[in-house]
Amino acid sequence: MRIPFALALLLTTAPVAAQTQSPAPAPDGPSRAFTGSDLFGLSIAADPQISPDGRTIVYVRRTGDVMTDRMQSSLWLIDVATGRQSPFATQGSSPRWSPDGTRIAYAAADGDRGQLFVRWIATGASARVTSLPGDPSALAWSPDGTRLAYTATVAGEGTKLGSAPPKPEGAKWAEPLEVIDRVTYRADGPGYIKPGYDHVFVVAADGGAARQLTFGRFDDGGPLSWTPDGASLLFAAIRGPKAEREVMNSDVIAVDVATGTLRTLTSRDGPDASPRISPDGAHVAWLGFDDTRRSYENTQLYIGDRNATSPRSLTASLDRSIEDAVWAADSRSLYASYDDHGQRRVVRIGVDGRVTTLADNVWGGGLDRPYTGGDFSVSRGGTIAYTGGDASAPADVWVTTGGKPRRLTNLNAVLTGAKALAPTRKLSVTAPDGRAIDAWIATPPGRAPGQRVPLILEIHGGPNSAYGPGFATDMQLYAAHGYAVLWTNPRGSTSYGAEFANLIDKNYPSADYDDLMAAVDAAIADGTADPDNLFVTGGSGGGVLTAWIVGKNNRFKAAATQKPVINWISEALTMDATLFTSRYWFSKLPWEDPMSYWARSPLSLVGNVKTPTLVVVGSDDYRTPVSESEQYYAALQIAGVPTALVKVPGAGHGSIAARPSQSAAKASAILAWFDRYRKAAPATAAQ
């Protein structure tokens, strides 16, 4: 079946490849090469929720649907003892067990809106328990199982300035004016923000009218945590008269379920979020840090008494950023996850701060690139369900008890068993200043020992994020096309401690460029990369560095910068999080010190660029807006550099690869661009 090429590709006159390639003959049987069509056959596990007794797991299975060109989510049950699976719901998300394990609440579409449903396990009967104007999220059962708390958007009225004249009956007039007066008025993904705010609700678990608990011109967020007596709920929000001008200064807040009275439990300058009340009700745990206006801070795990007073960090000496944490049933420790050297772990952290690793192969999240990620949950007895895996396949469901991990699903066995996938291994890299840099390399299936092949350097975004040794469709597609693929965690990456991440604080790009070049040199020295056939690409922060690299050297045959920032001044004034860039990545505002912004903008280096450079962006990107890519495309055109602009229709910054056809077509466009400049015959490594 033909995959629709849903990209607008504007090609300019450019040199063709040095060789002419004849069309490949039609295969006599199925191909073992990994292709764009295979993206529709992949499944990935997410959000595994283990029952209180540890016997059953419900999880979200996301699978490509070739007819709708989307990843569809369904819910499945797994018997932990046998691994036997059974379908639970043909569509749905956010499954959560009732405290007694007899029911599962979940969100699912009903018409054009999401609603909450409850399934009774014993009978298999389901009931819709909400009738909402907005999609529910952050589901949380009350301790006695009689109520569900959640957050949902409450629509509001937009600001009005003046009015149009009276409209005659039956007249067809233009849409009314839109008046924008919020500091943050658009967001990547949702787009321009409609009037309204997210608030906390509670509803009876067997249905009925929902009751709104929080109000005001503030967004209240989950996760939600009930006190053991069911009298209060904890959540996080940025509230107060200056809330709109804050970026990360959220607080933990308690709301009385009976009266709606609010109490703010934390008050420092910095984010306090994800509150969790201990089962005995004696302590509150939450995640946060002191905001010092650096580009990166480790998120620490704090505990305080039941009112969050006398707080102390359990992870100050860990030097890693906590992603999630839940209390153990005995209230004497918490289960938490964090990234370490490009790999997510689940650990147990005692209230004394002692850390014990329980699983170190946690994986999950996306499919196109190997970002760290993964979800977990814990039964009352301490059995952990989590998403895990490696470079051989997308994430599956695993369990571990007593440090013994066991894989429960193998969702892609049929597909991956029929495909020749790229082998992946770690590559030793030393930066010019002597720092060790983690890197991984995937090579084309069937590559002969000692054969040098073209190399694609793939750079992660963030820049404060991390890649790891996991499955990624972009890497597989590139490798299947005959390229080795190199990905690294240069300085600025997370999972190596705060000092390493902040080596680029107020100085990005900088020496991270040197780390990337050292990784390329290592791939050449290792005998894998053909030094005359080097290519580079990356998205977001990786797009910044791609554009920076071609402005610094001419060693790459071609480049593809994806959703980049090209001009830090224009990005700071047009991105969705309006206050962020100038507050955390620079010391002064753009009009106070424009040259510091210009000195770190790839646009300043356009005069040096000789490398043919493709520019790729989602047409609805509000994080690194389309205007950034269009500026670079225009500048390269003016400078006479071979270039083309690829726009992914309907895609935002975070959703540029969300639809399988667009993900496959984007990779194909990049490969087609690289193939134009790829040399015909690879060299052979010295034996």
UniProtKB/TrEMBL annotation:
<dbReference type="InterPro" id="IPR001375">
    <property type="entry name" value="Peptidase_S9_cat"/>
</dbReference>
<dbReference type="InterPro" id="IPR011042">
    <property type="entry name" value="6-blade_b-propeller_TolB-like"/>
</dbReference>
<dbReference type="InterPro" id="IPR029058">
    <property type="entry name" value="AB_hydrolase_fold"/>
</dbReference>
<feature type="domain" description="Peptidase S9 prolyl oligopeptidase catalytic">
    <location>
        <begin position="471"/>
        <end position="678"/>
    </location>
</feature>
<feature type="signal peptide">
    <location>
        <begin position="1"/>
        <end position="18"/>
    </location>
</feature>
<protein>
    <submittedName>
        <fullName>S9 family peptidase</fullName>
    </submittedName>
</protein>
<dbReference type="GO" id="GO:0006508">
    <property type="term" value="P:proteolysis"/>
</dbReference>
<dbReference type="Pfam" id="PF00326">
    <property type="entry name" value="Peptidase_S9"/>
</dbReference>
<dbReference type="GO" id="GO:0004252">
    <property type="term" value="F:serine-type endopeptidase activity"/>
</dbReference>
<keyword id="KW-0732">Signal</keyword>
<keyword id="KW-0645">Protease</keyword>
<keyword id="KW-0720">Serine protease</keyword>
<dbReference type="InterPro" id="IPR011659">
    <property type="entry name" value="WD40"/>
</dbReference>
<dbReference type="Pfam" id="PF07676">
    <property type="entry name" value="PD40"/>
</dbReference>
<keyword id="KW-0378">Hydrolase</keyword>
